[in-house]
Write a structure and sequence with these properties.
The protein is mainly β and about 200 residues long. Helices cover about 10% and strands about 35% of the residues.
């Protein structure tokens, strides 16, 4: 694990109540329900004064939500950086997990292997991992993506449509979300032809 030693002190519940959203803290490192014997950088999910019952919720830099009772001696507690404190081990961000959807024109096994080889060359052979791989053939076509109100009136001739993205591949639509109260309309791509006369 990639950790560093940080000098910090443990806070009481009263002290945590005085913290705001911008105050950096450390809580027990936990990832996917697996507790680790160190701490993770975190922030409270709401100002400390808003919590009731002595239980606080913090979100770590790795996206995990941790519920903590600071005064419970059996828990890791909530810590804050303090030169007069003691040393604790803090888990560092070792990298970024990317969930990629790659479109490879005329994709075949050789072209995919070339992609992986280039990634391993750039980041190191033991770093780049392939898992949960789902190779699907997709048509090489483009669509136009629009948004319109979810409860739009009929026969409005698309007046309320907002062009969200142009020349988008259909497979990318799955990874987008419409604005609140709007829905996506996907249509075959039409090239924009400018009929303005030129001199």
């Amino acid at each position: 694990m990639n950790t560093e030693k940080v000098t910090a002190r443990r806070l009481t519940a009263d002290e945590v109540s005085g913290l705001g959203l911008q105050d950096g803290i450390f809580v027990s490192a936990e990832t996917d329900g697996l507790p680790l014997d160190c701490y993770a950088p975190a922030f409270l999910t709401e100002p400390g004064k808003n919590f009731e019952g002595g239980s606080f919720t913090a979100r770590t830099a790795f996206g995990e939500e941790i519920h903590v009772l600071p005064d419970n001696a059996e828990e890791g507690g909530i810590w804050i950086a303090d030169k007069a404190g003691q040393e604790i081990e803090v888990l560092q961000s070792a990298g970024v997990l990317l969930n990629l959807a790659l479109f490879v024109p005329n994709g075949n096994k050789e072209s995919l292997e070339a992609l992986y080889a280039a990634a391993r060359d750039a980041f190191g052979a033991g770093i780049v991992q392939r898992w949960s791989e789902d190779t699907v053939e997709v048509p090489d076509v483009k669509v136009d993506l629009y948004e319109e109100p979810a409860r739009g009136r009929k026969n409005t001739n698309g007046q309320n449509r907002d062009r969200r993205a142009l020349d988008i591949y259909p497979t990318r639509v799955r990874f987008l979300e419409p604005s609140e109260g709007w829905r996506f309309i996907v249509e075959p791509h039409k090239e924009i032809v400018d009929d303005t006369p030129t001199i």
